[in-house]
Write a structure and sequence with these properties.
The chain is α+β, with helices and mostly antiparallel strands. The chain is built from eight helices and four strands. Strands 1-2-3-4 form a four-stranded antiparallel β-sheet, sandwiched between helices. The protein is globular and about 50 Å long. The mean pLDDT is 88.
Length: 181
């Protein structure tokens, strides 16, 4: 886990309420949630697969959430990508590795509510990309988006993709979506 986010949380005295190592296909990652006050939580997810992390502040007071998110953004190293930049990166990627990275970044940073533009880029990557590993990464990435609109897509890929590992990944993500409903 990033020392920067850990030091920030520790410096504020925020209590860890959830921590788990993640296995992103042989590589490691981390997910941590801190209670930043009674009605607010800071969530952090990190993937070493693409050296990408994301955070979200959840709570009942929008002004406090915005202020806290801005503070975290300022204290973390690296560039925080906007939703527009994430979408642009996916749409412009021509190299399979660049597209895979953009898909993971966008899975972590997609809008909370359904966005047709994001959906269509993920849909195309899941169903039409000629490289099965890219299709598989697209499916793995939408596991973090959690839009119910992806369920029909997951079912379709599970039933029709030409590569067994892609069908298996779609089934795994579909089951996770259904369990969360």
């Amino acid at each position: 886990m990033s020392e920067d986010i850990d030091l920030l949380a520790h410096g504020h005295g925020w209590e860890v309420v959830f921590a788990q190592d993640k296995d992103f296909e042989k590589e490691r990652g981390a997910e941590v949630n801190w209670k930043i006050r009674e009605d607010a939580v800071l969530g952090y997810l990190e993937s070493y697969l693409t050296d990408v992390c994301c955070f979200v502040v959840m709570g009942s007071e929008p002004e406090f959430i915005d202020t806290t998110a801005q503070e975290v953004e300022l204290k973390l190293p690296g560039k925080v990508l906007t939703v527009g930049e994430l979408l642009d990166n996916m749409q412009r990627a021509t190299d399979p590795r660049a597209l895979a990275r953009a898909l993971v970044e966008s899975g972590f940073g997609a809008p909370v509510t359904f966005d047709a533009d994001f959906f269509h880029v993920f849909e195309e990557a899941c169903t039409q990309h000629p490289i099965h590993n890219v299709r598989s990464i697209a499916i793995a990435s939408i596991a973090y988006v959690e839009w119910p609109e992806f369920l029909p897509l997951l079912r379709s890929v599970e039933a029709t993709d030409t590569h067994e590992s892609v069908r298996a990944r779609a089934a795994h993500v579909r089951r996770a979506y259904e369990a969360a409903q």
